[in-house]
Every structure is written in C-alpha cells, then in structure tokens.
Design goal:
CATH class of the largest domain in chain B: Alpha Beta
Number of helices of chain B: 4
Largest interface: A-B, 61 and 63 residues
CATH topology of the largest domain in chain B: Alpha-Beta Plaits
Mean pLDDT of chain B: 89
Radius of gyration of chain B: 42 Å
Shape of chain A: rod-shaped
Low-confidence stretches of chain B: none
Strand content of chain B: 15-25%
Helix content of chain B: 55-70%
Distance between the termini of chain A: 120 Å
Strand content of chain A: 25-35%
CATH architecture of the largest domain in chain A: 2-Layer Sandwich
Radius of gyration of chain A: 51 Å
Order of helices and strands of chain A: HHHEEHEEH
Number of strands of chain A: 4
Number of domains of chain A: 2
Strand order of the largest sheet of chain B: 1-2-4-3
Largest sheet of chain B: 4 strands, antiparallel
Oligomer: heterodimer
CATH superfamily of the largest domain in chain A: Ribosomal protein S6/Translation elongation factor EF1B
CATH class of the largest domain in chain A: Alpha Beta
Number of strands of chain B: 4
Strand order of the largest sheet of chain A: 1-2-4-3
Distance between the termini of chain B: 105 Å
Low-confidence stretches of chain A: 204-213
Order of helices and strands of chain B: HHHEEHEE
CATH superfamily of the largest domain in chain B: Ribosomal protein S6/Translation elongation factor EF1B
Helix content of chain A: 55-70%
Number of helices of chain A: 5
C-alpha cells in the first residue's frame, strides 16, 4: 500500500477552523436574533399605528357627539322639569278637596227637627287632605238629645262611603232653655256641636292597598 | 478548541454587549411601545361606552321631544288660565263677577297671604278671604260647585257659614281660598 502524504493538511485544518469560528457563528446568530427583534418591533409599530388610528377615529367621533349630547342633556333636563311641573299641576287640580258634594251630603242628612246655626270647615294638607268640620245647631223634639245623636250617627254613616277615617263626635250637647214651635206644638230643644273629621287623598287610600298585598 | 485570554475577554465583552442590547431593546424600545399601545387601547375602550352614552342621550332627548308638547298641555292650559298683571287687580273682580252671575250680590275679597310655590317654580300661591254677606244655603252650595268646576286653580281651604238671626233663609259665609298665579 502506497503512503499518501497530505501536504495541505495544515491549510485544510486552518480553513476548517475558520469555518467553525465561534465568533463568526455567534455573530451570525446574533444578527439573526437582531433581525427577528427588528421584525417584531416593526410588527408592534404597525399594531400601534392601527390602535392609534382606531383611537383617533373614536376620539373624533366622541368630540363630535359630546357637545351635542351635553346640549341634549340640558334640553332633556328642561323638558323633564316642564313635564314634572305639568304633572304636578294636573295632580294638584285633580286632588283638590271639593266642598260642594260635602255640603250637599250635610244638607241631605240634617232633619227638619234640627237647625244648623253655624258650620265651620277646614281642610289642610296638599296631597292628603285632613278635613275638620264643626256643626253648631239646635235640635228639637220630645227628646232633643236623641235627635242630635241621630244626626251625629247619620252624618258619620252618610260621609263614611265617600271619605276615609270618618269620625263624628259631640263637642257639646246641652239641654236648651228655650222652646220652639214645630208643627204647631211647643217642643224642647238642645244645643249641640258636632265635630266631623276625615281624610281624603293619596295616603288615605294607600293603607288599604298595602293590606291587600 | 482552546480560547486565548484575549478571546475570552472578547467573548465576555460580546456577551455583556448582547445583554445590554437585549435589555435596551425590551426596556427602551418594546416596553414603551407596549405601554403606549395599552394606554391607547384603554382610551379607545373608555371612549366606547362614552360614545354609546352620548348616542343614548341624543335618542332619549329626541324621544322626549316627540312627546313633550303632548305631555305639557296642562301646564300650557294653566298658563293660559292665569291673567296677566297683579292678581290683586283681577282676582277680586273675577270672584265678584262670578258670584254675581250666581245671584250673590255682596262679595268682598281680600288678600290674606302669598307664598312662592317650592315645587312649581315660576308660580306662587295666594290665599284670599272671601266674604258673602247674604246667601241661601242651596244657592251657596250651587255656587261653590260651579266655582270648583270652573276654576281648577282655585281651592277652598276653609269656610264658615253662620245662620242669620234676622233672616232664617240666609247665611253669612266666609271662605278662605288659595289660587295659583304666575310669579
């Protein structure tokens, strides 16, 4: 077998060493990583641009709509106030206490043996009306006290269906000293003062509704 | 493969340089960009509901505007019912004329008190004392009924009916009424 001597082995080794130079390899790797970083940064910049555009569009839309919305809010407040006032006025008108039906009911209840000499009525409260009526008068008959008592109970019964919490009490009931002529007869009298109290309006009705629940 | 002292120094230096570059890339370039992105995204997200609210507000106002005229008819009617000028000038005359139409001649109307309406801005409430010297009970009842129906802004707060000693058929009546007038 012939001996072959590679006279270039040193040159080849040097070339091989140069090809596998770690510094060169690391430079390549670092360059690749750097390129990746740059690409990634570019992508992020692009994303940032898209987000910025979206923000600018939203901001522009908001800038356009916001003054209109503020003006609309002011107008809404104005209109709401007017509507509230309108509803309040309507409620006030509808929830007034009407005296005419009350006077009619009293007139229907007073019998011919009774003369009412004074009627004082007062109503307080806006949505809930507390009404107080005092009737002063004279009752006549064989038992004038009984006539007055019948009037007291008749008033409570008459007003009961129309109003809430009707109470009818005597403030005073005294035998009268004078006699009066009725149907051609002289009969005894009694003077009385009846106090009528009741309520009407929202709250007077509310407890019944709550009970039903 | 053996590295010489000089090469080791280069490698260490290179390593430090790489670390520095990587740190700078993340901390000085990428982090602020990410922060900016997050801030922009948050602002956009925050603007979303605000824009929706604003659109909702515009829609609500438009809806309310559509029903506004219809819902404020009573207020406009009330406005029309109240005459211009000082109530002291027109109210006693109005009441006197009203009771005259009902056959009650002698009427005296006096101003008692006046107070602003807290819930109804632009209006005030005036309390009046009305004195009817001579009136029959039935006639008075009928007049009260008409008054309560004709003038919805007026409310009778108290009344006093006194039987006349001289004439059994007539009574003297004192009324306290409140009415709503413009401020």
């Amino acid at each position: 077998m012939a001996i072959r001597i590679n006279l270039y082995h040193e040159v080849q080794k040097a070339r091989q060493l140069k090809r596998r130079d770690p510094l060169k390899l690391s430079m390549y790797s670092l360059s690749a990583i750097g390129a990746c970083f740059a690409i990634y940064y570019g992508v992020e910049l692009g994303r940032m641009h898209a987000i910025g555009s979206e923000l600018a569009r939203a901001q522009e839309e908001f800038n356009q709509i916001d003054p209109k919305a503020k003006a609309a809010k002011l107008r809404e407040d104005e209109m709401s106030e007017e509507i509230r006032k309108s509803e309040l006025v309507t409620r006030r008108m509808e929830e007034r206490f009407y005296w005419a039906p009350m006077l009619e009911q009293i007139a229907q209840t007073v019998p011919r043996e009774v003369q009412v000499t004074r009627l004082v009525g007062e109503v307080s409260g806006d949505s809930v009306h507390k009404c107080s009526i005092v009737l002063d008068g004279l009752s006549a008959g064989s038992d004038p006290r009984k006539v007055a008592e019948e009037l007291r109970t008749a008033l409570a019964e008459k007003l009961g269906p129309s109003y809430k919490g009707v109470t009818s009490t005597f403030k005073s009931l005294e035998d009268g000293t004078e006699l009066v002529m009725l149907d051609g007869k002289q009969i005894a009298t009694a003077s009385f003062a009846i106090n009528l109290q009741f309520t009407t309006g929202e709250e007077a009705i509310a407890p019944t509704v709550r009970k039903k629940r | 493969m053996k590295f010489g002292k000089e090469e080791i120094q280069k490698i260490v230096l290179g390593g430090l340089l790489v670390i520095g570059v990587v740190y700078s890339y993340f901390d000085l370039l990428l982090a602020p960009l990410k922060k900016q992105q997050a801030a922009a995204r948050k602002t956009t997200e925050d603007l979303g509901p605000q824009i929706l609210n604003a659109r909702g507000q515009l829609k609500r106002t438009a809806d309310l505007e559509r029903n506004f005229a219809e819902r404020t008819v009573p207020l406009r009617q009330v406005d029309g019912m109240i005459p211009e000028g000082s109530p002291v000038a027109w109210f006693p005359t109005k009441i006197g004329d009203f009771f005259k139409r009902q056959g009650i001649e002698k009427t005296t109307t006096k101003l008692n008190t006046e107070s602003p309406e807290k819930e109804l801005t632009g209006f005030r409430r005036i309390s009046w004392g009305i004195d009817l010297a001579k009136v029959g009970y039935g006639q008075f009842g009928s007049a009260v009924s008409r008054l309560e129906n004709e003038d919805p802004l007026l409310e009778i707060r108290s009344l006093q009916i006194d039987a006349s000693r001289d004439d059994a058929e007539t009574q003297r009546v004192a009324l306290t009424v409140v009415n709503l007038v413009k401020q």
